[in-house]
Model the fold of this input.
Amino acid sequence: MSEQVSKVEKKRISILGCGWLGFPLAKRLLGSGITSQVKGSTTSEAKLDQFAAAGIDGVLLPLNPETGLDKGILDAFFDADIIVISIPPRTSQNVAGNYSTQMQMVAGAIRRSAAKEVIFISSTGVYRDLSQTAVEPDVQLPEHSAQPEMVAAENAIAALRPEKTVTILRLSGLLGYNRIPGKYVQGQKDMTTGDIPVNYIHRDDAAGIIKAIMEQGIQNETFNITAPFHPTRSEVYVDSCAQFGWEAPTFKMPDQHPPFKLISGDKFSKTYQYEFKYPDPLLFHYESL
Done:
């Protein structure tokens, strides 16, 4: 481990975006003994009771660039040792530039805070489909990326270095529980992407990896987080449809092989010790709710 590594002992942790990943992460951290307090933000007042029942200090914190952020709420929320940012851009509602502006606002609030360590949840969607293995140095600037705004957001948070220790985690497609790949393609005909390898990570492993990084030491680095095995889309879609009795999609050979990417998780596996609960997307745990 480098000199930038810091160990966690009963630290206060704030999770900005305590949603589909952030909420189970918060519960996992509370049950681990490595934190004395977990705060979680939400934009839904209805979730505050759920947070309280789980032992999470809930904060209603909308991120609206037009109205700005309430300084009093921000100061209280970011009064922590570690900040986890788990807010994906809303692609269906996002106005160009809105997400990176949000993250610039967040970065400013963290810069003023006493927090020393930050984990930013990004996406392997930043890599272009170049029909090759994607490693972390491949994308460092927005113009190199399939998702320029996500990289701009990464860089806004990374600019907190060296005053803060910032880890960027680029997560592959988050699945598990009610996020079932076959659900989104059931019954489709003549799909041409069946031979493309998948890049997925189960939610349990995503949360487990974030916890492991906190325990073993946050670093000023960027890591791809992906399940070690990469079966084809057709294998994953057909298998997950079969589990729930859905009509499987059908596939045909395309005239030209579609471009793809294969995400490498080697940098993470060489830096941290972690045993995947679900290394193979064909063995992911799902629950049809």
Helices lie at 22-30, 48-54, 71-77, 98-112, 148-158, 203-216, 233-244, 266-271. The chain is about 30% helix and 20% strand. The longest strand covers residues 35-42.
